[in-house]
Input
Amino acid sequence: MTTPVAEGPASDLARRLERFRAAVRAAPGNETDPLPHAPIPTADLAARLASTLDGEVVTVRGGRFVRVEGRSVDIPVDRRRLAGLPGQPPPDRPLVCLDTETTGLATAAGTVAFLIGLGWWEGERFRQVQLLLPDHADEGALLDELARHVPPDAWLVTYNGRGFDWPLLVARYRMARRAAPVHDGHLDLLPVVRRLFRHRMDDARLQTVERALLGVERHDDVDGWEIPGRYLGFLRGGPAEPLAAVVRHNDEDVRSLARLIALLDAGYTSPEARRDAPIGDVAGLARAFVRARRPEEALACLDEVLERADAPVSTVVEVPRPVVAITPPRTAVPWWSPQARADFGGPPRNRDRGPSSWHRTAAFAATWDAQRVALDRAHLLRRLGRYADSAEAWTGVAAGPGRTAIVAWIEIAKLREHRLGDPAGALEAALRGVAAADRRRQLALPEPALEADLRHRLARLRRRLAQRRTVA
Output
């Protein structure tokens, strides 16, 4: 007995869908549905991938995957020289460059890495291999093969791999009830690029880095948002040809990791190599040395910049602001607001801590030039305990124009009062700061926070000197 089909919206939708499929099959050139809904055997998917991408199907106990051998290129790197830079791996550790293409942009359980690109050095030759997942059921075989390519003493080299690629792979290993490969370290090149080169690029995307630093321009490249759809379309029975562009994209990504390491080795490992580097690059390297707790090498980098005869010093032209009788209270801009300045470190902490926090936003907001390098050098000398040298460096900064001169005189007053035991010299510096602030006020450029700091400092220094004279 035939069960009657219930009428309703669901049955109407089913009839419409069947009529659409029939119309597609009847169209010229579409005798068969290009995206069949019937499951396709994994062996057929793997064979189609291998034949399209010029790879080979590797069948193991846990399933199968497709292996594509990339072309090897010469990318010489002096590992001993490279190890002298902050954050770089020891020279005796193998490097494994890694990049993934995934079915989404999250690291949750539903996102799968269907393409893993690997690269490593054999002498001066950089060798590349790509591993592709023909179907979700074969993920265990792909993960086992990846673990075979990561020795326990190796360092991973990625671009944003600490935040995306490796956490995603760790999640996939956990889903497959496997332990993630043990490795000795992880070199994520994204923070390195931001610290050294971000000042001269619009953004820190890998393709922007390729154009600005490596001189590489990609042609007919696939956009990242297209990649998941191409793979999912293939799993549904679509052609494998669209994945060829994805494989080329991943191949270039892995090779760019090696080229970035070669750039760091050739251009930034010695004073001679850094001679022609932009000022911002060397200053960023100095900050990287500071983060690595190597301040002496950071100071050497800053001295290299200031010793250049052609080091440009920016000239700031300030437009007088109109003076109003009543100044409305300043409201802080939330860190998430579109008007807030970009901060890659997340929401700023302790945004308003009184007059002593002025230098944290204003003094380092300018582009890299000799004056900003001098600011970094003066702070670093103080951090090293070389207070007299730091005061001398701040005196040179105080000779410049603008708000920075007031900042410098306040720093000199602090050093003389608290570190050098010279309250009279601190009073002189504070008075010079007041004079600089008065000049800016006459130009309709008042600095109320700095002026409040100077008033408070002057009052305390005068009381201290008066007590000293009374005791004497």
User: Anything to note?
Assistant: DSSP finds 16 helices and eight strands in the chain. The first strand starts at residue 56 and ends at 60. The domain at 368-472 is CATH 1.25.40.10 (Serine Threonine Protein Phosphatase 5, Tetratricopeptide repeat). The first helix runs from residue 9 to 26.
